[in-house]
Amino acid sequence: YEFVLAMLFAIEEINRNPDLLPNVTLSFTLFGAHCDSTTTEVNSLNLFSKYELINPNYICAMSSCDVILTGPSWTASTKIGTLLCYLHSPKPITYGPFHPILSDYDRFPHLYQMAPRDTYLPLAMVSLLLHFKWTWVGLVITDDDQGVQFFSNLRQEMHRNEICLAFVNVIPVNMQVYIMRAETYYNQIVTSSAKVVIIYGEKNSTLEVSFRRWECLGTQRIWVTTSKWNTLTRKRDFNLDLYLNTFIFSHHHHEISSFKNFIQTVNFSTYPNGITLKQLSWMYFNCSTSISYCKTMNNCSSNTILEWLLQHSFDMSMNDDCYNIYNAAYAVAHAFHEKLIQQVDIRGMEKQTHLMHECSQLHAIMKSIQFTNPIGDPVNMNQREKIDAMYDILNFWNFPQSLRIKVKIGEFSPYFTHDQQLYVSKEMIEWATGNRQVGMDQCVKCPDEQYANKEHNCCLPKAVTFLAYEDSLGMSLACMALGFSALTTLVLGIFLKHQDTPIVKANNRTLSYILLISLLFCFLCSLLFIGHPNLVTCILQQTTFVVLFTMAVSTVLAKTITVLLAFKITAPGKRMRWMLVSGTLNFIIPICTLIQLFFCGIWLGTSPPFVDTDAYSEHGHIIIMCNKGSVTVFYCVLGYITSLALVSFTVAFLARKLPDTFNEAKFLTFSMLVFCSVWVTFLLVYQSTRGKFMVAVEVFSILASSAGLLGCIFVPKCYIILFRPSVNSLQMFKNK
């Protein structure tokens, strides 16, 4: 029934397209196959309406150019392809999986396969096994040519990657033979220690019967299979536990978003040929509809029956077979469209009514058709140019009340380099956090605010944490900040008390006061990083930190330039002497700070810091922290401070060998060296830390760099002021 819906959707979409087969209507007839092990739906596509209605101004001629769509079983396609090979018309198109036998041009010269080749399917499955380190797996295949060929290719890939097969179940095609061996196959799978099993084979076969039996017996494994087994996860077919962890390899194609709306709104009463929900339900129940159920269905509306079917069995997105039917309908439409164009060009419009009855050129046109379907995927009908498939990896998520959704968790592309062919999103897989075992128990992913306990049988709430004052780490950093602040205040008091001494006056005491005050607030601003974050503290901690550090470093730059000018210029002119005496160099500080404020304005205007949570860095904890917003701007403001520090270091380095009675150039050089070393180390360590330790690293860098400036520049001066006052006198300076 899903094939019929896909066909109806494609036909209606084609008939609404004014650029494809204008003034021509595409229609189809549905033939339901008999109920046997190779259940098939055969659909014939015809041009013009088959509705026996007479419409004014419409030519309702029947087309003799029929195209048969057959599938999904390759055995049914083989039978029909062989039969039609002798009839020459209609042309068969199979929408099932690609099969090498059907590509034999000598046996099936007019048969077209819509599916791409599955050359790299064994490699894709082995890549998934290696990703999860599953090296002991089982295999279940059907006993036919395709199953044996898949086994041969898979075994080569496994041997190459050191993966071992625990068992191989080769299910016979004959039902009588299978029944005699069914118990052996069951014992083989349940007694094996392999928890991962690969499935490959046809649906509507003895292999499907095996799975139905295993379901009744409660067999649970991690299944790795193809999209043809997608529909076996329906509610009525299997329980949730059996397909707890199913990984499905489906051919990659874009999503047809309008298909969901179509199957929700389709009205079968508008189709005169009587395609009813009863027919679709009959297909769904594999021809086992009871008389009582038929009576019940008679009392239900079409919309009610369709709604029931969709809720119980139907996937709203197109599977591989439905997508192949969709492309097949468009291929036929494009072929007839090209045929119309060619014949109209040759004969003219006056004979258009007879054009559709000439089908000798249809095959030549069909085999060379190339087009892009409405969702942007290329389609090539040349069977000799079939491409190898790329795969989407799908996983089913199970929820209470038997709710299940299919989620794409990865991709495999053979066209990438070997180490980039497989991509799997670990976060999308339905396992409990921290539980990577593949045991028998059902695993449910805990919510982000919870985590799995040690026994992995329940979810516990995560503790909310941040860099708090109560933590030993937070308390230590806070004590360091307060201690350095007190020390800076003490140094400032010493300088104020001895402000008239030569050592304080010699190096521009105004700049020294500004630097000490800047360092005092640098120490204090680190307290903004400790405690429960909120929007105000997140904004203040970053902007305050960068502005204060810019003031401190620009003050050091002004001091180094002052030292260089004072000692390098022996006979300064009036302008240079005026710059040194008037304190013009002090304007370096507000200029540099204003530039940094400009960067901060851009930061706050585009992507300001905000409160964020991190639920993954620490197991069992949700960390509340400040997100910097734009990381690019953050590194820009750090880079600006670093550039000022490098300029200060360069200028101080040039003045390091000048007369050193009260020359602080050496101390300035060393302080900038310490400052740059701290922040280079910060950038390296910051990238490898997470959670509250990332905040601690930034606080420590602020304290370390500020302490480096305080210690390298002011501790030697304080030592002279307090312990060698004889050196700090004008008389001693004159004697020297």
TrEMBL record:
Identify the coding gene. LOC101612014
**What is the protein name stated in its UniProt record?**
Vomeronasal 2, receptor 118
Q: Which GO terms describe its cellular component?
A: plasma membrane
Entry annotated with the keyword Protein transport: no
Assigned keywords, A-Z: Cell membrane, G-protein coupled receptor, Glycoprotein, Membrane, Receptor, Signal, Transducer, Transmembrane, Transmembrane helix
Q: Which organism is it from?
A: Jaculus jaculus
Output the InterPro entries linked to this UniProt entry.
ANF_lig-bd_rcpt (IPR001828), GPCR_3 (IPR000337), GPCR_3_C (IPR017978), GPCR_3_Ca_sens_rcpt-rel (IPR000068), GPCR_3_vmron_rcpt_2 (IPR004073), Peripla_BP_I (IPR028082)
Transmembrane annotation, as ranges: 473-498, 510-531, 543-567, 579-604, 632-655, 667-687, 699-722
Q: Which residues form the G-protein coupled receptors family 3 profile domain?
A: 473-736
Keyword Membrane applies: yes
Topological category with respect to the lipid bilayer: Multi-pass membrane protein
Q: Enumerate the GO terms in the molecular function aspect.
A: G protein-coupled receptor activity
Pfam families per the UniProt record, alphabetical: 7tm_3, ANF_receptor
